[in-house]
Specification:
By secondary structure, the protein is α+β, with helices and mostly antiparallel strands. The protein is about 20% helix and about 25% strand. The chain has one domain (about 10-345): 2-Layer Sandwich (HIT family, subunit A). β1 and β2 form a beta hairpin. The chain starts with 7 loop residues before the first helix and ends in a 5-residue tail after the last helix.
Length: about 350
Amino acid sequence: MIEYKKDFLKTAKEKFFNNPSIKKSQINSRIYTQNGIDFSIEYLAIDNVNKKPINISNNCSSGEPKKPNDVFEPPFEDGILLEENFMNLGNHRLLFNKFPIKDNHMILVSKDFKSQYTHLDLFEISELILLQNYVNGIVFFNGGKKSGASQPRKHIQCIPLENISQEEFGIFKIFNDQKIDFFCKIDILRNINGIKNTSVKMIKNDNHLEDYFDILKIKKFEENGISHLFVDLTKIRNYFKNSEKEEFLIENFEEYTQIIYNIYLNVLNNLNLINEYNSENIFSDYSFLFTQDWLYVIPRKTDCVELKCGNLFLNSNSFTFSLLVKSQELEKEIQEIDIIKDIYTKL
């Protein structure tokens, strides 16, 4: 059985607090409700995010990209490295995000260079599941530059849910209110008209997935040939939960990890995100969001939307309905436009 580090988050918070190497921005958050959806518009009053090195050019960039500078290559500044060998597998380091928006923002980084343009493998799924349960967090993976990846080395991000209010990340309010059918609106993410729910066939390529297929809720939404997929994991999670422990401890971690990994691969396959001739590399960018309760994948067309008052950069975090803006003019413009039509349908 995998060891549960009960004090992991407590120790991490102590290391984060007053850490001189961490440059946190000052955020002024405002909840703006439009068409029944709560959006958190987060204005960077003091912007340290702008100091973050960008080593992958985005769709709004002009000119030649700069020569990559691997910010995830040691040595690190004091206080940035949390664990040199996460899970003792020799695959990943665990770091603090040096330029966080939320407290205790952590990043799993491949020790040996591995491209951000590769799908998550079984070891990475295993490690992100464990980290997620140590901190009860939400995991983000920016799969390719169109999903907002800014660094070429493989990295997976996690933020503890205690540092995110229901209001700040509207997706949690939707899920907790059991409005799963809301996700048919999220071709709110593509367009509200003409949406249809369709059943999703899982590729039953192993016994594990077939055994648990009947307890998965799967939603696939399609609009004009574009789709995204949401999987409710609460039943399968509860199946493996140790009811004698307060914390979420996997009874059979390897089996659980294999099932989640197979679900992930099937989601990518259903969204036509896996190239049968090169199954490791990402050929079509996507955003990946993952909590203990659900898994959500959205194919991406761009990481940037051009508005009148400036460019709005959107990584996978934006699909929690949290929008980070760098000027008050842009903040005002967002409140005056149709956020779904003018932003999300373009992503």
